[in-house]
C-alpha cells in the first residue's frame, strides 16, 4: 500500500490561482478578436497555452519567459528564411515536403540543445521550441506562411508576457506567498529523513519498497525545487554529491535482499556502531538545517574511522571462520552488495561532516559581510 498523497500546499494553490488569472487574460484576444475577419483564431490558442506555464518565482519566470520568446522567434525566423529560399529557388513552385527536408540540417543543429545532448546550446535556448516552431512557416501553415508565422510569434509573446505582468503586479501588492523554508534548510532536513529511512530498513528494504519509494519521491521533489534556485556554491557541491549517493544506496538496497549469512555474521556485529552513526548523521544534518552548524560537531570523522576499523575486524573474523569451515561463505554477489551499501553509508556520513563545515564557513562569511556593512 502506497503512502497517502499530501494535500496541496497554499503555495501550490496560489500558483494555480495566478496561472488562472494569466490564462484568463491571455485568452481575451480569442473571444474579442481585434479584426472583423478573425481567420487567425486557431493560432491564437498558443497564447493561453504558454500562459499555463506560470510559477511564482518572478526572477526564474523572467528568465524562462525570455528564453521562450527568444526560442520561438528564432525558430520562426529560420523557418521563414527557409521558406523564402526554397520559394525563390523553385521558381514559385513551393513543395512543403522538400522544404521540410531542407530544414533538417538546422533541426539537427538545434537538437543539440536538448538535455540529453549536454551541450551549452541548451543553456540559453529551449531547443524544443526552436525546432518545432521552425516548421510553422515551412510546412504547417494554411495559406500565408509569413503572416501565420508572425501571428504565432505574437501569440506566444503575448502568452509569455501576460504572466510576467501578473506576477509583477502581485509581487508589488505583496500577494505572492513565501514558498516555505529556504532551500538551505529544506535540503538537509530532506536528506536526513531519507537517510534515516534507508538505514532503518537496511536489512529488509524490499519489504518496505513502497515507503522507500515514497520517501525517494519526496526527496527527489526537493532536489528538483533546489535545482531551480541559487544555493551557495560550497553547500551545493557537497549536497548534490550526497543526493546522488543516497539514491545509489536506495537502488543497492532494493536490488535484492541481503543474504541471511551476511546479516548474521557481518551486519549484526556492526549494527550497534552503525546505528549510533546513523543517529549522529541525522543530528548533524538537522542542526545544520536549523542554522547552528557550529553546535553540530559530533566527531563524525572519528566515528567513521571506528566503524571502518570494526568492519575490517569483523570481515577478517568471518573470513577466518569460512576458511575453517565453521560457517558457509556468502556469495560474491552478496558481499559486493553489502560492501556497496555500507560504503555508501560511510561516504554519506563523511559528506555530512563536509556539509556541516561548509555551512559553518558560509555562516562566518555572511556574518563578516554584515559586520563590514555595519562598519561602513
From TrEMBL:
Keywords: Membrane, Transmembrane, Transmembrane helix. This is Aluminum-activated malate transporter 1. It comes from the Eukaryota. The keyword Ubl conjugation does not apply. The keyword Membrane applies. The chain crosses the membrane at residues 12-32, 38-56, 63-86, 98-117, 124-143, 149-170.
